[in-house]
Amino acid sequence: MKKLTTTSHAMLGLLALKPWTTYELAQQMERSLSNFWPRAQSKLYEEPKNLVAHGLATAKRERVGRRPRTVYTITPKGREALRAWLDEPAAPLTLEFEGILKVFLADQGTREQLLDQIRHIKTHAEQEKARGMTFVQEYAETGGPFPERLHIIGLVVGFLSGLNSAVLDWADWAESEVSQWDEMDKAPSREMFQRFMERGKFDVARD
């Protein structure tokens, strides 16, 4: 029996809304949680069995026509475990972002490579903004699959929208800055760093 993880509790939270099949759980995780808790599909398909092993969910075999399926339902013990987890302080924000890793190591390449990475970051952020608007429009028109949760969904959407806007704002600014460089190793490092700190609202004293 595997240890319970944050993903375990995320899936338990979905089961608290309604019973789901494994496939439905994986799809709902992708739809609602992938922006802030992305996980490999293979892991998502393993997790419901782990919840059953801990007594936090039950599994019922059904048939839809000739096709068998397993429906998972949260147990009272599962609801207690979810409430206890919600009472614990959350881990601090962490960031896993390959684009920024490549920006951090950009002095090992060319200015053009750095500009390309910044533009890739911007393009992806624009795509995410458009994708987010599709969901927002759906929620505004229909209430989505759980209209009774719109006040909670709105809080999360507000956070994700602000985060995406910050990425777009940064990408515009970074592209403008790097476009002014002649070469990677001839950028005015100290003067530029001071401007960067001022933009980030860091109070750094000048010598």
Walkthrough of the structure:
- This protein is mainly α and 207 residues long.
- It is built from 8 helices and 3 strands; from the N terminus they run H-E-H-H-E-E-H-H-H-H-H.
- Strand 2 and strand 3 (67-74) form a beta hairpin.
- The radius of gyration is 23 Å and the shape is elongated.
What's a quick, concise take on this entry?
By secondary structure, the chain is mainly alpha-helical. Helices cover 60% and strands 9% of the residues.
Overall geometric form: elongated
Mean pLDDT: 90
The number of helical elements comes to: 8
Oligomer: single chain
Helix content: 55-70%
The arrangement of helices and strands along the chain is HEHHEEHHHHH
User: What proportion strand?
Assistant: 5-15%
Please state the structural category: mainly alpha
Taking all Cα atoms into account, the compactness measure Rg is: 23 Å
Terminal Cα separation, in Å? Answer: 59 Å
- How are the strands ordered across the major sheet? 1-3-2
Secondary structure tally: strands: 3
Largest sheet: 3 strands, antiparallel
**In terms of per-residue confidence, which ranges show pLDDT below 50 for 5 or more consecutive residues?**
none
Write the layout of secondary structure elements.
Blueprint: H1 6-15, E1 20-21, H2 22-32, H3 41-53, E2 57-64, E3 67-74, H4 76-86, H5 98-104, H6 111-142, H7 150-179, H8 189-199
Antiparallel strand pairs: 1-3, 2-3
Helix pairs in contact: 1-3, 2-3, 5-6, 6-7
Any key phrases for this structure?
60% helix; 8 helices; single chain; 3-stranded antiparallel sheet; mainly alpha; 207 residues; 3 strands; elongated
